[in-house]
Backbone:
């Protein structure tokens, strides 16, 4: 069993509990704006729910999963005592406090600004302060991951850092730097206005700051999933990692190219010029590279498992895979969703194609497929894999786990495919209501209904997930042995310094952010007369 | 061949296969970027290139977005310019009148919070950020009616913020434009 099981379980249970609440809100939103729901006479309730859903799913849930998983990795991959457990608990309680502080104004309808803030809309100051506390709590984790790796390095000079920890620390650095964009927006722009110290705000500058966070945060959400691809899946299905080096290259590439690309979210914005829009578009294309490398390496790793199990032929080995193993199933579903979601993403980042789907339901479909689908299904798999090591009990009902994964996959397909479709037809995002009586909107009623049904399938799957974990807390005791990670076919005896440390990549990450964001931010900040009056939400 | 040599050989094979795949992946990505650059330069399809600013608290007092200047105007070169503003929770004009088969420039801004203009069934799609002017080129091949929802959350009334675009015949538009002033289809 893991030494810090209490700490990790606290993170996971809080993550999955708030996930359950936000999932329920999401399903309700799908229902209430579909033709099967009745007109919600107060649309303001919808936007409270939407703000809560986004804030939890974007800031609280994935952060807690990454943190809990990170502590587990630090302890088991480095095989050393986790240093700073008290600080880790402090980080956890900061997140609890921040979440409560943020959710109260949301529930009261005083912060219905959505998790993307949208100044000059301004909500209650405690909402923003709560989000800041959540981020500060997670920064403690970033520091702890770095410190623990440093201590290990001292004890093992020159030795290759275990892949899981190398990737985990890369993810934590990515998050630390990613969060700076939104932190600047909150601290320099929004909070002074929300606190009543200022009454005007530059909305264009705020959108550029937020784009700094908005894209790379997705790669922070993705990190635990990719760590699971490389270091858990091959072990769980009886294979080997095809290439340790390629894995390290992928993670360092994420660190560098996930950051300076966020302005593809502002293609349709008037405050950014064409030059930087193009640069960011080209860099976004680059971020496909680590994913393409990963898909190749993981497919090869899975093939090794199949051939070790007696698989033959060019494609015949696929049948030899352990399909009844939940990890195999989760990986396959995750890859299918990553494929569709990634293809959609290439359209979104395209300099030209973006205009046809910008801010339509296509985008909602896209990020639910990538994050809710490809990423979150691996969070489930991580939880299932770690659970016996956290509880000292066995997860017995594999059949139920398979049903849960199937439901999530089917639910995500049924939800997001019609969403993409109505997006192409031009259906806008974030609408509490559609007038399906309008002949121009009526044809979209069927698709929206399908999406709502998908939402309920997802809710059923989410509830099942929580039930499986809760039952796992009371299952018969069994010793799961030490928690270990996948081994590479060719385990590295030595690793080049560049792929064994993060310094070079962190320097590149910061340098590229400065070159790709410095000039636009500076010109916007120096541009006089673009600050506009704040519009307070919920102030009657 | 010893086991150690076999191990080394297979490691080399693995590295070679990986390099090939990585090269292939890089070619795809560079190809995509070049395609976007070519289309952007050759067909002039690109997002809004220039940054223009305006003061949203003085829109109604002076400048190009005063109320009397909103709507469609036929320029001397035969092109049409449409000026519009978005505010919580409507567009002005709420119904935009334009001719078919004519190059049109849409110039728009917001009077309060962030809004967006999207014309369904077309690629017209731009943000309206207060303090900045959005400009987009449009072209409608056929006459007809289009819905024009706000595509960005602008607070509680967002779901009710829908405008319309009416595309009429080129000659009919020219006729109506003769009397001067700014055209729209509000109330028609």
Residues:
């Amino acid at each position: 069993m893991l030494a810090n099981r209490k700490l990790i379980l606290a993170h996971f249970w809080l993550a999955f509990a708030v996930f359950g609440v936000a999932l329920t809100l999401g399903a309700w939103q799908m229902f209430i704006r579909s033709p099967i729901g009745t007109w919600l006479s107060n649309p303001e309730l919808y936007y409270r729910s939407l703000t809560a859903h986004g804030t939890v799913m974007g800031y609280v849930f994935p952060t807690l999963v990454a943190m809990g998983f990170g502590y587990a990795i630090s302890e088991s991959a480095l095989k050393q005592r986790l240093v700073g457990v008290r600080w880790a608990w402090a980080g956890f309680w900061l997140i609890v406090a921040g979440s409560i502080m943020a959710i109260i104004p949301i529930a009261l309808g005083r912060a219905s600004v959505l998790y993307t803030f949208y100044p000059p809309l301004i909500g209650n100051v405690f909402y923003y302060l709560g989000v800041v506390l959540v981020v500060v709590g997670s920064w403690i984790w970033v520091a702890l991951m770095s410190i623990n790796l440093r201590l290990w390095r001292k004890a093992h000079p020159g030795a290759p850092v275990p892949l899981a920890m190398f990737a985990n620390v890369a993810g934590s650095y990515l998050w630390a730097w990613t969060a700076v964009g939104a932190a600047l927006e909150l601290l320099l722009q929004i909070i002074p206005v929300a606190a009543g110290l200022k009454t005007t705000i530059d909305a264009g500058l705020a959108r550029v700051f937020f784009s700094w966070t908005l894209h790379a945060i997705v790669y922070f959400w993705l990190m635990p999933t990719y760590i699971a691809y490389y270091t858990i899946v091959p072990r769980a299905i009886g294979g080997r990692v095809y290439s340790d080096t390629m894995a390290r290259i992928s993670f360092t590439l994420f660190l560098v190219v996930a950051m300076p690309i966020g302005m593809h979210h502002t293609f349709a914005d008037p405050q950014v010029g064409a030059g930087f829009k193009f640069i960011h578009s080209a860099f976004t294309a680059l971020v496909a590279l680590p994913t393409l490398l990963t898909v190749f390496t993981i497919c090869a790793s899975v093939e090794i498992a199949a051939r070790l199990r007696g698989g033959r032929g060019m494609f015949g080995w696929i049948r030899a895979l352990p399909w009844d193993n939940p990890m195999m199933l989760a990986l396959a579903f995750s890859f299918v969703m990553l494929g569709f979601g990634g293809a959609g993403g290439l359209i979104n980042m395209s300099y030209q194609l973006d205009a046809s789907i910008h801010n339509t339901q296509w985008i909602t479909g896209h990020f639910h497929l990538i994050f809710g689908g490809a990423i979150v299904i691996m969070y489930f798999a991580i939880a299932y894999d770690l659970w016996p090591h956290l509880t000292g009990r066995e997860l017995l009902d594999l059949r139920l786990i398979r049903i849960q994964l199937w439901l999530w996959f089917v639910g995500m397909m049924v939800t997001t495919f019609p969403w993409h479709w109505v997006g192409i037809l031009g259906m806008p995002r974030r609408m509490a209501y559609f007038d399906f009586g309008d002949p121009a909107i009526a044809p979209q009623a069927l698709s929206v209904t399908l999406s709502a049904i998908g939402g309920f399938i997802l809710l059923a799957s989410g509830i099942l997930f929580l039930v499986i974990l809760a039952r796992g807390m009371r299952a018969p005791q069994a010793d799961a042995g030490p928690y270990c990670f996948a081994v590479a076919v060719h385990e590295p005896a030595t690793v080049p310094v560049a792929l064994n440390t993060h310094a070079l990549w962190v320097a590149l990450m910061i340098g590229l952010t400065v070159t790709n964001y410095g000039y636009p931010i500076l010109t916007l900040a120096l541009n006089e007369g673009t600050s506009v009056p704040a519009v307070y939400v919920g102030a009657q | 061949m010893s086991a150690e040599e076999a191990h080394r050989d297979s490691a080399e094979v693995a590295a070679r296969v990986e390099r090939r795949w990585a090269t292939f992946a890089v070619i795809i990505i560079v190809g995509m970027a070049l395609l976007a650059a070519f289309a952007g330069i050759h067909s002039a399809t690109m997002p809004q290139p220039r940054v223009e600013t305006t003061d949203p608290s003085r829109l109604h007092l002076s400048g190009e977005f005063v109320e009397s200047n909103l709507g469609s105007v036929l320029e001397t070169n035969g092109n049409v310019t449409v000026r519009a503003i978005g505010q919580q929770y409507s567009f002005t004009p709420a119904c935009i009148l334009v001719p078919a088969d004519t190059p049109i420039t849409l110039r728009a801004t917001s009077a309060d919070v962030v809004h967006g203009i999207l014309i369904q069934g077309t690629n017209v799609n731009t943000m309206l950020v207060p303090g900045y002017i959005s400009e987009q080129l449009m072209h409608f091949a056929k006459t007809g009616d289009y819905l024009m929802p706000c595509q960005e959350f602008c607070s509680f009334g967002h779901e009710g913020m829908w405008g319309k675009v009416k595309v009429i015949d080129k000659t009919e538009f020219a006729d109506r434009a003769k009397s001067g002033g700014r055209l729209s289809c509000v109330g028609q």
